[in-house]
Specification:
Blueprint (H helix, E strand, L loop, with lengths): L1 H15 L3 H79 L2 E11 L6 E4 L12 E3 L4 E8 L4 E5 L6 E6 L5 E6 L6 E3 L13 E4 L11 E5 L13 E5 L8 E6 L30 H4 L7
Antiparallel strand pairs: 1-2, 1-12, 2-5, 3-4, 3-12, 4-5, 6-7, 6-9, 7-8, 8-11, 9-10, 10-11
């Protein structure tokens, strides 16, 4: 009976299309059932895709964070190298401007004893360094070699209480003595009369007196002060031009026109020197360097 009914319905539909209204009515009730049947499959597929996407995004986020951390670390190193390059370029440019024979030395340690300003650098007698040599940075005078050892040297800063340097006011040539105060940001100018022609902001340079420091090197800038008419001397302080608390490289200067060198290391020549000039041998070093003591 079912087969006969099915055949009858097919023939009727094929010939007259009389069942279209009935099919449309039934589809309204049947279509939601089809979507409902497919809903679990669609939900599972979307859930699996969401989990997979979340896992992939989480892994990618972790990877990007690690790369960002590594890149930041590298940028810190690059920043340090960039600043070091700037300092070395400034030192090199300064050495050519000054026209002296110089050697770049790297800071090794700082003596933090009270009222003592001494630093240690990595160049010593094997590089021709000897006591009382001037030491500069790219901004001005730092100090002088206090003790020279084979592989290192101790530098007494100009702010050490035991250090004094002859200076003159660049504006008018007034001579004075700058004495260390024990503080890295201050020099004292004692024994100047109250009516001395010196003003706040005046640049102090080396006078060349005493023979240790060649003339013309910047030393300090005079601080603000108030002259007192009831005192014969005025209390004047100055701020060093050199960055005494920030230096990593220093310039050790040879003020003598003849170069000093050892067989283990050769210092750069001044542009005016000829490459064929002979350098003194190790046995002649003490004779070539006045005032130098054999370590």
């Amino acid at each position: 009976m079912a087969i006969i009914a099915s055949v009858t319905l097919l023939i009727t539909e094929h010939r007259n299309h009389q069942l279209d209204p009935l099919r449309a009515t039934l589809s309204v009730a049947v279509d939601p059932l089809k979507y409902l049947v497919n809903l679990p499959t669609v939900f599972i597929e979307q859930a699996a895709y969401s989990v997979s996407t979340y896992s992939s995004l989480k892994k990618e986020n972790t990877r990007l964070r690690e790369e960002q951390f590594i890149d930041k670390t590298r940028l810190l190193k690059f920043d340090s190298l960039e600043k070091e390059n700037i300092r070395l370029r400034a030192l090199l440019e300064n050495s050519f401007k000054l026209g002296e024979q110089m050697l770049i030395a790297e800071l090794l340690s700082i003596n933090t004893a009270p009222y003592e300003n001494i630093v240690v650098v990595n160049k010593g007698t094997r590089f021709g360094v000897h006591p009382q040599q001037p030491v500069l940075d790219a901004n001005g005078v730092v100090g002088q070699v206090f003790r020279a050892l084979p592989f290192s040297s101790e530098i007494m800063l100009i702010t050490d209480p035991n250090h004094a340097i002859p200076v003159q006011v660049n504006r008018n040539g007034l001579l004075a003595i700058a004495v260390g105060s024990g503080q890295l940001n201050r020099l004292n100018l004692p024994f100047l009369p109250n009516n001395a022609d010196i003003r706040p902001g005046d640049l102090l340079i080396t006078s060349g007196l005493g023979g240790t420091f060649p003339s013309g090197y910047p030393v300090a800038v005079v601080d603000d002060f108030t002259p007192m008419s009831n005192k014969p001397f005025v209390n004047i302080t100055a701020t060093p031009k050199a960055m005494l608390d920030r230096n990593r490289e220093l310039l050790i200067v040879w003020s003598d026109s003849s170069p000093v060198s050892l067989s283990t290391a050769q210092l750069p020549k001044k542009p005016s020197e000829s490459p064929s000039d002979a350098l003194p041998a190790d046995s002649e070093l003490n004779a070539a360097t006045p005032g130098r003591k054999t370590p």
